[in-house]
Amino acid sequence: MNDFFDAIDFIFSERESPAGGARVGGLANMWELTWEHLQLSGVSIAIACAIAIPLGLWLGHTGRGGFLAINASNVGRAVPSLALIAFFVAYIGVGFTNLTLALVLLAIPPILTNTFTGVRQVERDTVDSARGMGMTGTQIVRRVELPLALPLIFGGIRISAVNVVATATIAPLAGVVTLGDPIINVNTYGDEGRLAAALVVALLAVLTEVVLGVVQRAVTPRGLKLEGGSRWRRLALGMPNDRREATT
Amino acid sequence: MSPLLAQVEIRERTEGTCVSDNGFCPDWIVDNFDRYVDPFLQHVLLTVVAMAIGFVISFSLALLAYRRRWLINPITQVTGVLYTIPSIAAFFLLLPVTGRGFLTAIIALVAYVLLIIFRNVLTGLDNVPDETKDAGRGMGLTDRQLLWRVEVPLALPEIMAGLRIAATTTVGLATLAFFAGAGGLGEQIFADINFKSNVVAAGGLAVALAAVLDGAILLAQRAITPWTRAASAR
């Protein structure tokens, strides 16, 4: 148990690095690492959303590329994040931009698959009546398909965000100093620094999950909440209980 | 253990060769394939053991929650938190308790797959049509017989789908197991992360392992649920 107290102490009080020289630990140091971690994760998720959501909406709306959209997350899962990052380090190089690119690749598949599935599972009757009311294709996407797909889209974003926050921990291997730094460079930060970083990373991942869960609930159209409460609850819990849904 | 030492060891420094230029060198991979065999086997062991333990625990939990519905929420929440905690953090959180090594890695990997398998088993059981269960009861099956002869077999496609997701994810996470001192292909990637041939060989083996396990589980599913093929062929 003492190890954990030492780790918490590390978060709050600065000390000399065991390797000598630099001073490590304390709130300022931890925040610096956390901020870099959040920036890296945030930028990657934002770019992934900007790519995957429009693409998923378009594929879902036209019904094309279903094979690609569904299997993207299967393929994405099979590539270990460490291997992906190592590949980028060896072939493209280190640094914030390159690493962001790798994390974007990691984050796209779940969002793409869920957006596609979310649009495809909108009942054809609903789309037909929207068309009957004279809506154009773009209007149908924006006013019907997108709102009804939002809970699933956010489910995808949650999966990606948690995964990216977790993977950003190995970012120091690519030269970006995130919360993974005390974990990978244990000589500089000491054992208590490493445990402290592990605690903060775990907390950050759980917080990401919880906050995005709240957002997901907030963006769920009221109509969806009323209809079939149990199904909505399952979505809110992040349980892909529907056969058509291909998450995780 | 030091990555620097390992780098010196892994790449010989002859001038003007593919290796010293850090190209992608199939010849080097073939010549040095030996060094990937042990990490690969460690990787397989980590994955299979974590999957087996994870399956036993989450299958039991799912059966329990299937009969006692109030358990679903607490189990989902607890396994959900375990699922969310990044494995790399879990390895170090466990370190003061279980020490470095295989056990620590296995615990973290098992913790991760619980939610995946649990919810798929439960979904599978829930999706068994009521008429089928009624028919089973009408034939005089007891609850236990109904479970093992009707409900579990009909839930198999869903259960196996969960196992496939769990298998590919575990192979990926096991690349981080070296942080817990349990070896695996990740250790080999980490040994020289700048060397293209090394990264491709070790990473490629991990992807191949994920694909092979995925395919193997799919084949197993086809073999033990012949009726699903008959249904889709119609």
Give a topology summary.
The complex is a heterodimer of chains A (248) and B (234).
Chain A: H1 2-12, E1 14-16, E2 23-25, H2 26-62, H3 66-78, H4 81-91, H5 96-120, H6 124-132, H7 137-167, H8 181-184, H9 186-219, H10 222-226, H11 229-236
Antiparallel strand pairs in A: 1-2
Helix pairs in contact in A: 1-2, 1-9, 2-5, 2-7, 3-5, 4-5, 5-7, 6-7, 7-9
Chain B: H1 3-10, H2 26-31, H3 34-67, H4 72-84, H5 87-98, H6 102-126, H7 130-138, H8 143-174, H9 185-191, H10 196-224, H11 226-233
Structural class of chain A: mainly alpha
Q: Please compute the radius of gyration of chain A using only Cα atoms.
A: 21 Å
Oligomer type: heterodimer
Order of helices and strands of chain B: HHHHHHHHHHH
Q: Average pLDDT value of chain B?
A: 86
Uncertain runs of chain A are 232-248
The fold-level CATH name of chain B is MetI-like fold
N→C terminal distance of chain A: 33 Å
Succession of helices and strands of chain A: HEEHHHHHHHHHH
Global geometry of chain B: elongated
Task: Indicate the CATH topology of chain A.
Answer: MetI-like fold
Number of strands of chain A: 2
Please describe the biggest sheet of chain B, giving its number of strands, its sense, and whether it closes into a barrel. none
Specify the CATH class of chain B.
Answer: Mainly Alpha
* Number of helical elements of chain A: 11
Biggest sheet statistics of chain A? 2 strands, antiparallel
Q: What percent of the residues of chain B sit in helical stretches (DSSP H or I)?
A: over 70%
The CATH homologous superfamily of chain A is termed MetI-like
